[in-house]
Amino acid sequence: MTLIDPSTGKEWYKVDKADKEQVELAVKHAEAAWPAWAATPAVFRAAALRQYGELINTYAEEFIDVESRPIGKTRARTQGRDVHARRSPEEHR
């Protein structure tokens, strides 16, 4: 699948599109992982989610580009509403 930058009309990126079997396999694995995740104590789940949040912050610029560019949304709007809006209140200070 080719992503087009609407501001230029030019090809921006090519991504592989999952077929039905790949999606079904991903869902199967997610469902299989759920019981272990649900049984994990909340403190450990919270720590894992904080680490995930740290990764989002580390790669924020790339996320902003991927989120805004294909649909023509401004980087400023994406940064404020989509990427950094999910930060914890302490990180906004």
From TrEMBL:
Bias-annotated ranges (Basic and acidic residues): 79-93
UniProt-listed InterPro entries: Ald_DH/histidinol_DH, Ald_DH_N, Aldehyde_DH_dom
Signal peptide: none
Domain Aldehyde dehydrogenase: 2-84
Molecular-function annotations in GO: oxidoreductase activity, acting on the aldehyde or oxo group of donors, NAD or NADP as acceptor
Region (Disordered): 73-93
Entry keywords, A to Z: NAD
Homology family: Belongs to the aldehyde dehydrogenase family.
UniProt-recorded name of the protein: Aldehyde/histidinol dehydrogenase
Organism: Pterulicium gracile
Organism classification: Eukaryota, Fungi, Dikarya, Basidiomycota, Agaricomycotina
